[in-house]
Amino acid sequence: MPALRASRPVLVLGVLLALLAFGIRPSAAATTAAITVSTALSRQDGSVATVEGFVVGQPTAANTVIRSNFTGDTAIALADSSSQTSTSAMLYVQVTATFRAQYGLQSNPGLLGTKISVTGTLTPYFTPHAGLKNPTAFSGAGGSDPGDPPEPGDYYANAIGKTGPALKSALHTIISNQTKLTYDQVWNALEDTDQDPANANNVILLYSGRSQSKGTNGGGVNDWNREHVWAKSHGDFGTATGPGTDVHHLRPEDVSVNGARGNLDFDNGGTTVAECPGCTADGDSFAPRAAVRGDVARMIFYMAVRYEGGDGFANLEPNNSVNNGTAPYIGKLSVLKAWSAADPPDTFEKRRNQVIFDTWQHNRNPFIDHPEWVSSIWP
What we know:
Blueprint: H1 2-21, H2 37-42, E1 48-61, E2 64-66, E3 75-79, E4 91-94, H3 97-103, E5 115-122, E6 131-140, H4 152-155, H5 164-175, H6 183-193, E7 195-196, E8 199-204, E9 211-213, E10 224-228, E11 250-254, H7 255-261, E12 265-266, E13 271-273, E14 276-281, E15 285-287, H8 293-306, E16 317-318, E17 329-330, H9 333-342, H10 347-360, H11 366-369, H12 373-377
Parallel strand pairs: 4-6, 12-15, 16-17
Antiparallel strand pairs: 1-2, 1-3, 1-5, 3-4, 5-6, 7-8, 8-9, 10-11, 13-14, 14-15
């Protein structure tokens, strides 16, 4: 028996030498457990590994990752946080032809912010940037790891299959479980949620669409400030922690454009608003540029479901009127529904929803995840 045990390593060595003699190299095995992006960044040694991370954009050069208007399906960037903007903290992943239809960002822009896992070789991509090449497997990692936040499907589990008032009630219960911010915290939140995908130093102003330096927030001319999309006088909630600080409807906007909107209801028509290309207003209503009309509508619908009068604030509801004044109503419902249908959620809006969920309030706007629920609640 001892002789047999001693001969085993000799036999294995002989097999390996024979394989090498014929030019055959045993393939490296992937690690059994997925590693983080940060681990993959420091382990660019040609080994095979499974890396888990959030899709944060499409790398187009060593120091460039785009987060919208994707130009191809050949590469994605992964990070340990869905809100990561520093390319040095991103792993560039090659997407070969086999996987492009399902995991290329040009074909699947909705992947942005999604957590996935990829198995491949840890080696620089867009040299010298750290990467993962020659992938052999992609899969959705979801939120199955302990401590991960729930994915949208799990988040809405108690609402699935419901319609009308029952759906609205279920969603109210789900999204009311949130972290509440102070009005001062909103400044920092908006710098994160509304960051310009093309310039991490800027935010995108909601109505005007202008990209502006994060540092120019305040009350001066051409500064940006905190716009309440559901005008705070419609229900008289002011800036109190709750609806007054809920970043699902608070957005950066130019001070003068914010003033021009005031507390007007939303409707079509009117004349051009200065410093706000595509915006119009008249004596009783305001319309933003077409590219964000759906965003505005879905923020209004969120507020109507989240604030039902049971937590010390007014019961907020959309109606089909304008000139609502200080009543806890906002219109025009028929127009808001049409805006939501004509302008479905885009990459920027989806990312914003995810950042609020991951980092700030830990609740979601259900009408970004499920636009079809608008017509179920407000037929």
